[in-house]
Amino acid sequence: MFYDSNEELLLGENFTAQPPFGGSTSITDTFFNTPFLGQDGSITPNPFHGFLDPKPGSPVDFALFRPITLYGNFPQTLRNQFSDHYHLTVQRELTRDTLWQFGYVGSRGHRLLAVLDQNYGNPQTCLDLIQIPGMSCGPFGADSAYSVPVGAIPPGVTLHLPYGSVPTVTGPNANPITLVGLRKYSSPFCEPTTGAGCPPDGVPVFASIFGLMPVANSSYNSFQTLLKQRLSHGLQSLVSYTWSRSLDNASSFENAVNPIDPRKSRSPSCLTRPTV
């Protein structure tokens, strides 16, 4: 059985420069030595007014950092990853200089880190929007803005809201409905039935809020055999064969799993090699 501490790389690679301690901006047609000076002479000011150093406990307006496309976090208690290995091997001497070996070799990994999106798009809301005439929704639509006019929802059709004070609205709707993103925390202060607190420019506050969680596991099972000829008359040989299968939820801590049920992401590993 082997234990592994969590990679320090995670802290540096995935959690640096995140609001409110850092921000991201998009600029184009600049020079490397003057990144805020455009080739046409225009100046792109620093939207965060210098270095960010918020005091502990101070209020944060995350709307200033929009759009926050990726925001990561660790669970409060991060359990260690571990794996156990096992095998059963049989050896048989065929001749004085020839050995035949075969056996079963396996291992299991537990509490492996994987990316779990805690702010995934609401698929039911997307399906409901498709039933409204003139509305469309599909893949990659979780961060788009949707405006449903008064009475647009057909009678008997229910629109499930991803956030707000009411969970659903059944048509025909008496008020217009504003959705800025279809994720649970797309627009934390947005009230869809009134439009209050919804970003007027249609840009959500949060997109994916990913957590590096110990929710993955792996398994490896194999049949291994070899034929070994010891040095005899100046000749030595070794022939081996492995038939195996490797399954996991995530082959790396950078792989994302099904946010509703991580077990449904179990499939052949990215590194699997059935025969060697």
How would you describe this protein?
- It is a single chain.
- The protein has a domain at 83-117 and 211-268.
- The protein is mainly beta and 276 residues long.
- It has helices at residues 9-14, 123-130; strands at 2-4, 68-73, 81-95, 98-117, 145-148, 158-160, 168-170, 177-180, 206-232, 235-248, 267-268.
- The longest helix is centred in the middle third of the chain and has 8 residues, at 123-130.
- The protein is built from two helices and eleven strands, in the order βαβββαβββββββ.
**Global morphology:** elongated
Describe the main β-sheet briefly: 7 strands, mixed
Q: Structural class given helices, strands, pairing?
A: mainly beta
Order of helices and strands: EHEEEHEEEEEEE
Binned, the helix content reads under 10%
Q: Give the CA-CA distance, first to last residue.
A: 25 Å
Q: How much beta, percentage-wise? A: 35-45%
Number of strands: 11
The number of helical segments is 2
Q: Which consecutive residue ranges, at least 5 long each, have pLDDT under 50? A: none
Report the radius of gyration as a whole number of Å: 28 Å
Mean pLDDT across every amino acid position: 86
